[in-house]
Amino acid sequence: MKSVIVGTAGHIDHGKTALLKALTGIDADRLEEEKRRGITIDIGFAHLELALPDGETLRLGFVDVPGHERFVRNMLAGVGGIDLVLLVIAAGESIKPQTREHFDICRLLWVRRGIAVLTKSDLVDRETLDVTRLEVEEFLRNSFLDATHSSIIAVSSLTGAGLDDLKQALVRVAGEVPARDSSALARLPIDRVFTMKGFGAVVTGTLVSGMIRKEDELEVFPARRRVRVRGIQVHGEAAEQAVAGQRTALNPAGMTTQELARGMVLAPHSTFHSTSCVDVSLTLLHSAKALKDRARVHLHAYTFETIATVVLFDQKQVVPGETALAQLRLAEPTLLLPGDRFIMRQFSPVVTIGGGVVLDASPIPRMPGREAFLETLADGDAQSILRARIARRGHGGIALAELVAETGWPRQMIEKHLAARACQAEVRRIGDLVVHAHALDRLKLLVISTVASFQKKNPLVAGIGKEELRDQAQAPSEVFAAALETLVREKKLEAGGEVIHLPGRGVVMKEEEAESREIIEQAFASAGLKVPAVKDVLAGLKVDKARTQKIVTLLLRDKVLVKISEDLVFNRDALLDLRKRMSSEKAKSPKIDVARFKDLTGVSRKYAIPLLEYLDRERVTRRVGDQRLIL
Questions:
Q1: Is 109 helix (H, G, I), strand (E, B) or coil?
Q2: Spatial separation of the C-alpha atoms in residues 196 and 213, rounded to whole Å
């Protein structure tokens, strides 16, 4: 069964709700105030099933929106996920202000299919109907509803005239709507929240992508709360699953109606991130005023709305009709993904001024080459987009899970594109990270230059410690290890244990120096936490003072020994063991004083105080008065 979402659009009192009732038998006005005042205030819903020519059933979900200018914000909450629009125009009134604004909104949201419907045709004569039809044709010229490739159908909701023609047109146009991707990651923007007796909280919305099944674990954005899908209804009927393109009601276990609201989004748990900042391509309507840098606007995306500040890139303003790259800084966080469309309304007076598409919902501050990057996101294919996203992360790389969160693409889709020849030539897989080949090459050059610089400043030292080198390169351990392994294999660097040096530049110890190193290591290793004074250990060695100092420096740089005060040096294994013992003590009591620490370690105050200060610096403990809190 094919599912298509149809939205109404048009001026107040042009007969949108009456048309849906005539088509479906369902009154989409559900609020008492709507019935009393005779106008639509909030979005309403109806559905209809029609037979396609191939015998398949077409399920149409209708979203009825208010036409009054005061309720355009409610209209925007309903129109975000539609596949096609019924542009409703009263035959006796023709084009009105909200006809224009609603149609602009549909174009900005990239609605590409629809039908123009002339309602209340029974209230006008033939000549008036023909004049209105001509006016509508002119209004729609060169748009996606141009009469050359769309329909203008006159109907009467009262007499039923033209309804069969409209149903046939719906079958034809809906048949052209491509099926939404149910294999994509699911997202359900919430447009209604209510309580149903015996079930608890119920949320509804248009499932814009993916599939949701009973018992699925979902996450509510931006609240970041996990819920379980206890029940599903599709178009008012109980179902085991909902697929993209269907009006969906969910009974979520884990949150109450007070904690849920329109504008929130349901998506797979532990997959996406909320954002308060998005890079976009925006377009200003010809009817709008120029939009200045740092202007505040009302932003609408699916059912979400907030205030946003528009930060333009390298320009002071956007003129009417112009498209520009910009960053939108949102007053409230939400879940947005590349490709999502949005509407901008002027801050005051509140009128629609433009809209656009999200390019990047995970922008990096002060990113060089941002505009070229965004142009790739706007116009590139999937593989070039992936390469660009990986390249901007430099030699830090990016995890596959983060690529899923940034793109909104399933992991298997990303894996498929990374396996393509173009990506394989430019991207390196290192564990769960992906790194651009150019970034890896730059990291290798950085590592070589860092080693060379260190050895120039420290000619008497064998080389730089591996961990110190990684810290200076600021690279993830797995990426650094891969780069270093390549450099050693290519004989551009040499590794002596934990020390890295240029080829032929390592320090070769004489026999008595190697023996002295062994004595020093053993002296501190066997002492545990009751270490001897360094001068006492060095006094018994066979080598001179200059060479003993060099050996100690090597041991400290290799982190075999750790200096915690001017007089105290410990073996690293002793300190690691101390950390483990502190972790075990935390289970007994999170607080520890000097006396308890002395009992735990068996050391005197001479050692206890410097060791506790070391643990404070390492954030193993935090001093609170005369005690320490074990973190």
A1: coil
A2: 20
Q: Contacts from 585-590 at CB under 8 Å and sequence distance 24+? A: 585/630, 586/630, 590/629, 590/630
Domains contained in the chain, CATH given: 2-176 (3.40.50.300), 188-268 (2.40.30.10), 275-360 (2.40.30.10), 511-630 (1.10.10.10)
The full 3-state SS of 560-629, as one line of letters, equals CEEECCCCCEEEHHHHHHHHHHHHHHHHHCCEEEHHHHHHHHCCCHHHHHHHHHHHHHCCCEEEECCEEE
Cβ neighbours of 493 (radius 10 Å): 24
Residues 6+ apart with CB under 8 A from 389: 398, 403, 406, 407
Per-residue CA distances from 275 to 150, 189, 361 (Å)? 38, 15, 7
**Which residues share a beta bridge with 593?**
627
- pLDDT bracket for residue 462 (50, 70, 90): confident
The total of other beta-carbon atoms located within 10 Å of residue 99's CB is 22
Q: Could you give the CA distance from residue 558 to residue 564 in angstroms, rounded to a whole number?
A: 15
C-alpha–C-alpha distance, residues 491 and 483, integer Å: 12
Using the predicted structure, report yes or no on whether residue 56 has a pLDDT greater than 60: yes
Return the C-alpha torsion angle 237, 243, 246, 251, nearest 10.
Answer: 50
The answer to whether 320 and 290 are in contact (CB under 8 A) is yes
CA 603, CA 575: separation in Å to the nearest integer? 13
Radius of gyration (Cα) for the chain, nearest Å? 34
Average pLDDT over residues 152-174: 94
Query: Which residues make beta-bridge pairs with 368?
Result: none
Q: pTM for the complete prediction? A: 0.79
If you search the block for the tokens 């899908």, which residue do you land on? 229
